[in-house]
Amino acid sequence: MKRTAVKVAIQGELGSFSHEAAERMLRSCTVVPCARSVEVFDQVQHGSVDAAVIPIENSLAGTVAEHADLLVARDVFIQGEFLLRIVHNVISAPGVKLSALRKALSHPVALDQCRDFFRHHPKIEPVPFYDTAGSVKHVVARRLPDAAGIAGLHAARQYRGKILQAGVEDDKRNFTRFFLIRKSTGKSGVAAAQNAVQNAVRKRKSDASAPRYQQLIPPGANKTSIAFKVKNLPGALFKSLSVFALRDISLSKIESRPMRGRPWEYVFYVDILRGDDEPARNALRHLGEVAEFVKVLGIYRAA
Fold first, then answer.
1. Rounded to 5 degrees, what angle do the CA atoms 116, 122, 128 make?
2. Which of 37, 106, 183, 243 is buried deepest, with most CB atoms within 10 A?
3. Which class is 89-173 in CATH?
4. What is the pLDDT of residues 34-93, one digit of tens each?
5. Which entry of 17, 41, 176, 293 is annotated as an active-site residue?
6. What span, in angstroms and rounded, lies between the C-alpha atoms of 177 and 64?
7. 178 is an active site residue
């Protein structure tokens, strides 16, 4: 019996960096492109796809804010991460020459990562576009004689574009971190996190008391992503972070983001270098006692 390919949602067109990351993370998957990020999360939450691959952070541009917010708000769970080296290429329709270009289209973040190229080619105007691969799809389909897209090698192959210049990114150590997410087994959002934190992180005494996301944790998981909000009290953040320091648990990232719908209140995003073990569970239980809410976003193998 032939196995059905795993359906994976991405934001952007086929040929995008997300497409490449999805195929690197899940072999022989069927990629489902979505125009907007919220559609990706909708597809996962409604069960229309088996999983999604989303960019969460770029080594130059920082966190993808919308995706960070959606991880807290939606009923999803991170199962893996992947680091993709980002190589930008100038890609045109066949027959176009670099000297003929007057415009280069791409996502604003990609354009910002190629400043040196535009400085060396002052006659080429950077033009923001909704997607890197989408820019190549556009210029090739319309056979534009004076325009190119800036995107990855996957886009050139997908749309049969011509690479006029490869590796135009300013920094060769340019990486994007991607998450593999699946539908969670528990309830979602901030309200659910506030109501369920004590039970979700309590030390397991039986199968019934185990966290409901337990079955989603892959073998060998050694990294955990969480989001939490501290109480408005002196020393609240110090007390929250001390739950990890007291147990010699290393943090690889901590970042704050404004909380949607609650002006001047913030959510902290933290990555800890532990999987689902006793010290981590005790730390999360302790954090639940001092924080206003805690949500475990995922437990997975570090890239």
1. 75
2. 106
3. alpha beta
4. 999 999 999 999 999 999 999 999 998 899 999 999 999 999 999 999 999 999 999 999
5. 176
6. 10
7. yes
Q: Are 88 and 112 in contact (CB under 8 A)?
A: no
Q: Is domain 185-303 classified as CATH 3.30.590.10?
A: no
Candidate list 178, 179, 228, 244, residue with the active-site label? 178
Give 185-231 pLDDT, tens digit per residue: 755 444 444 444 444 444 433 344 456 677 889 999 999 999 999 98
* Fold: same for 1-84+175-183 and 89-173: yes
pLDDT score, position 204: 38
Q: Which amino acid is at 114?
A: C
Q: What residues does each domain of the chain span?
A: 1-84+175-183, 89-173, 185-303
Q: How far is CA 271 from CA 24, 226, 255, 279, in A?
A: 23, 6, 9, 15
**Active-site annotation holds for 228:** no
Are the CB atoms for 201 and 288 separated by under 8 Å? yes
Is the domain spanning 1-84+175-183 CATH 3.40.50.11740? The answer is no
Q: Report pLDDT digits (tens) over 166-183.
A: 999 999 999 999 999 999
